[in-house]
Amino acid sequence: METVCCNFCGCSETKVRYGVKSQKYSPEYLNATSIVGPHPPAKFTVVACEQCGLMYLNPRYDSKELAAVYPDEQYTNRVGYFSGSILFGFNKILPKVENRGELVDSAKNKKNLREIMFHKKVGRILDVGCCNGSFIALLERRGWKTFGVDFSKTAIENARNVYGQKNTFCGQLTDAKYRDSYFDVVTMYNTIEHLQNPKEVLKEIARILKPSGLLVVQTVDFDSINAKLLPTSLIYPGQHLYYFRGHDLRENLRELGFSLERSHFNTIGLKRSLFYLSMHWWTRAMVSLHRKNRKGLTELFRKILERIGIIHSEYEMLKRMKMVGANNIPMLRADRTFYFIKAI
């Protein structure tokens, strides 16, 4: 674990905003495999900077420990990943990387593309945190020159081998060494909260983005209704290091020469809300079952569920995953997308 200062202003004075017990993310039955890192503390703490108000995890895992909370399963095989397996099983679909909710022509990818093309019709685009590369694959089909960056070697291998995205870089954006004013668009979808040094990355984006270029940032907004009512439901301390409010991004990007063009919350419909809610309670039920040393009818019931395809080795999945569990409610109005324009 490491203790850090505010990434935006450098101030070390903070006040505690939220605390989340590790036990919520690290059930007793998984203590040996440590689901959120090698040595989780008794409680994760989110603090707010006394000077600028930025909220961040402190203390947090260091670079070496962070590598343990991003398992290969997150990027390759979605069988049993979180609790979608129960619904995939009914349809006899094995949710490998090709259909893990990130198909090239998925509704989410097409919606993001439409939003970008509202500002820019075509050009050179970089996706920071590109994961498996499905989104930039869609952009490439529409005539864009695509690039991607992700720290996960497994994710980049899939981007290249599954989606044919050769212009991808494994590592940090600052190490990619792109040329000044090289890109028309830079996107970060649910990425900035994972970064150890978001201000450094934003400065790098300002350097490599063309004048009048578009920067898209999507993250959970802690000015949202969800954050005000149930803030701890939005805290993922194993992976999310920063918890932004809309004005945090606006003010700091303004200093780097960006202006906010517009923003919107990414609301979801009733059917999808019910789907995520069912996933949430299914996962809680599975965690509850696995906390016990199951015998007799309980163990037989689990084997029957696996046999008929309702779950896919859920027990083994939970044992091997080393990341935050799916113990949170659906984000009905918390995820927000911001569109910034770099000054000419």
Q: Please give the CATH class of the domain at 98-223 and 243-269 and 330-342.
A: Alpha Beta
| Overall form | globular
The percentage helix is 25-40%
- The quaternary state of the protein chains shown equals single chain
Q: CA-to-CA gap between the ends?
A: 42 Å
Range of strand content: 15-25%
Question: Over the alpha carbons, how many angstroms does the gyration radius reach?
Answer: 20 Å
Summarize the structure.
With 344 residues, this protein is of the alpha/beta class. The chain has helices spanning 63-66, 85-90, 107-117, 134-141, 153-161, 173-176, 198-208, 225-229, 246-255, 270-290, 296-307, 314-320; strands at residues 14-21, 43-49, 55-57, 124-128, 145-150, 168-170, 183-189, 209-220, 242-243, 258-265, 335-342.
Protein architecture, described:
The protein is an alpha/beta fold and 344 residues long. The protein has a domain of 166 residues: Vaccinia Virus protein VP39 (Rossmann fold, 3-Layer(aba) Sandwich). Helix content is 31%, strand content 20%. It contains twelve helices and eleven strands. The strands form two sheets. The protein has a seven-stranded mixed β-sheet, with helices on both faces. A four-stranded antiparallel β-sheet has the order 1-2-3-9, with no helix packed on it. Helix 4 links the parallel strand 4 and strand 5. The longest helix is centred in the C-terminal third of the chain and has 21 residues. About 14% of the residues have low confidence.
